[in-house]
Amino acid sequence: MIPWHSRLASLPHPLPPPPRLPNLPSFRPRATLLSRVFRVPSGRFHRQQRPYGSGAVRALDAAQAFDYESRASEELEQRARLKIAIVGFGNFGQFLARTFAAQGHAILAYSRSDHSAAAGSLGAAFFRDPHDLCEQHPDVVLLCTSILSAEAVLRSLPFQRLRRSTLFVDVLSVKEFPKNLLLHILPPDFDILCTHPMFGPESGKHGWAGLPFVYDMVRIGESEDRADRCRRFLDIFAREGCRMVEMSCAEHDENAAEIQFLTHTVGRILAKLDLKSAPINTKGYETLLKLVENTCSDSFDLYNGLFMYNKNSTELLERLELAFDSLKKELFGRLHDILRKQLFESPNGSTAPVAKDN
Ligand code: NAP
Predict the structure, then answer these.
(1) Ligand 1-lining residues (CB < 6 angstroms)
(2) Cβ(129)–Cβ(123) below 8 Å
(3) Gap between the Cα atoms of 217 and 302, Å rounded
(4) What is the pTM for the complete model shown?
(5) 29-78: per-residue pLDDT in tens?
(6) Which of 189, 190, 147 has the alpha carbon at shortest distance from 170?
(7) Residue of minimum CA distance from atom 20 in ligand 1
(8) Ligand 1, residues 113, 143, 146, 174: which to mutate, most atoms within 8 A of Cβ?
């Protein structure tokens, strides 16, 4: 069987150039793309090569080509657009929705709390009932709820109202847990893409360029349409300049324990010290203050999820404790050496114990 990544890589690219980043190398020149998708000879787009009889015919012909081209372009853009249902429209769901909407995708939002105002401001439809949401037949269902609530939320969705080929994507900050959950709970016809955008509303507030996006195509159906839809979803992040990293969910969790759980733990320990800014702040200290801000702006549920649902986190916490103890031992060891010297060395340099007056 051909691996998913090879299959996706070999597919022709279906998207038109994005309005905000028109020179991305992954997008084909428009005429070539249109002619391939709509199966018209490429010469149709090179008007200067065509034999024209008179000025009148030239004008008419140019208009037809223009109409055709603009209609084809519209159709193409329509095809490239995804209907994305975001399940869990909290902090991170809304953050992602802003970029999805800016790229022209249709957003449907569903959440436990009423986020209809936030959805409305993005031009997204907000649903209070999961049946109504699923009856809209989204192309993609994006699971964006807290790690702790993911199983209950997933089980509450009426899968029978969705199209059988629906693509399920999750963005949970741990990866083995949702992968097993989706494989276990979803009907076998649904596609599964596990992802982790390794940035958030704070670190990604000035754009996503260069930020890592991890993904694992866990189960994508054989048809070209399904592979194409999966790639169109991944393209949302590629277009924004994310560093796309294909990685297994297990490997992600091994790495993330250090990269993510450690960062959040240190940020939360520092927060407990209630650090204050001062006129003599050093660069290093400023970094610590920033770390507290970055990590504590996420919910405690998120942090708790990183611990509870990544088996590597417990070991990391133990290593952190050992490292702290070992550092303390080193410091106190040196202090004891100095004290011992003071206690046992005589003033004239001999090592004979000095008699102490009581
Ligand atoms: P979060 O606290 O992890 O999740 C908040 C979301 O979960 C809200 O949509 C909330 O719904 C929903 N939720 C919480 N408890 C629920 C329950 N018992 N029943 C139903 N829904 C419940 O914060 P977040 O930052 O928005 O993260 C969302 C997901 O994105 C998480 O899985 C997280 O790991 C992942 N993620 C976050 C970041 C980040 O930087 N924040 C980055 C990458 C990935 P209501 O708002 O409707 O109450």
Answers:
(1) 88-93, 111-113, 144-147, 149, 153, 171-173, 197, 200, 298-299, 301-302, 305
(2) no
(3) 24
(4) 0.79
(5) 333 333 322 233 332 323 333 332 334 444 445 556 567 677 766 666 66
(6) 147
(7) 112
(8) 146
Strand runs labelled E in 166-322: 167-170, 191-197, 212-219, 243-246
State the closest ligand 1 atom to the C-alpha of 89, by its place in the atom list counted from 1.
9
Pairwise CA distance, residues 36 & 79, whole Å: 14
User: If you search the block for the tokens 């159906």, which residue do you land on?
Assistant: 221
Report pLDDT digits (tens) over 193-244.
Answer: 999 999 999 999 999 999 999 999 999 999 999 999 999 999 999 999 999 9
**Nearest ligand 1 atom to alpha carbon 302:** 3
Residue type, 175: K
Q: Specify the residue with its C-alpha closest to ligand 1, atom 16.
A: 149
d(CA 120, CA 122): 5
Alpha helices in 186-239 (DSSP H): 224-239
From ligand 1's centre to the CA of 254, what distance in Å? 22
Rounded Cα distance, 303 and 241, in Å: 27
Measured by CA distance, the residue closest to atom 5 of ligand 1 is 146
For residues 256 and 44, give the distance between their C-alpha atoms in angstroms, rounded to a whole number.
51
Task: Please tell me the distance between residue 300's alpha carbon and the centre of ligand 1 in angstroms.
Answer: 10
